[in-house]
Specification:
Elements (H helix, E strand, L loop, with lengths): L6 H11 L18 E4 L10 E7 L6 E4 L2 E3 L6 E7 L7 E8 L2 E8 L14 E9 L9 H4 L3 E4 L6 E5 L4 E7 L3 E7 L2 E6 L3 E4 L14 E2 L4 E2 L1
Amino acid sequence: MKALGSLPVVVASALLAGCSPQEFPIPAADGPLSLQIRYPTEEPVWVTDSISVWGTIGSGKARLRIDGRSIRVEPDGGFATFVPIPPGDPPTLELEASKGDSVIHRTLPITRARSTPLQSAEPRPAARWVRLSRPPSDTVDAATQARPIYGRWTPGGALALPIPQEVRLPVDAETPGDLRLRLARDVAVWISRTDAEDVSPRLVPPLVGSPRLTQSATSSVF
């Protein structure tokens, strides 16, 4: 099954199943029944046909069902699993945690991330040059920081072309959050304002002297 936006379950699975139980056993916990969902949250997520769900029900002796399916619970009450996306708009997961006579029900709606570009302000003409440069970040490595910046065919729309950083390009239109770069007479892409800084166009130094063509027995040179 495919799953987008499911990175947290990779971390959870590594913690729960990365080593054999004999080497690093999960300590048992038998607290009061609870149902705490760590992921997904109320934030929109990119999903296709399945989604990761993880959290805790407070006790390794409790049981958990999601949409009627029995889910494995670790000795400390934690759980991490993939479940199919149910039909509906929005799709909704039904969770049931139980321990003895205690039962907790939870309905979890899934908010899908928007797959269409947000409506942006009407573009207005512009006439200046910018240099592409990704803002510095303490949360990404050097390789990620140096990657090309992708232009989009419309503001916030589908990806178009990768453009190397440090390139200087003319801007011919803008919105409050985006700039349109003119790559050729009939080709233009949009980038975020945060990925560019205003500069002067790079001037080509004039050619000194006049070119003179000479010919030898083996080649022609200037």
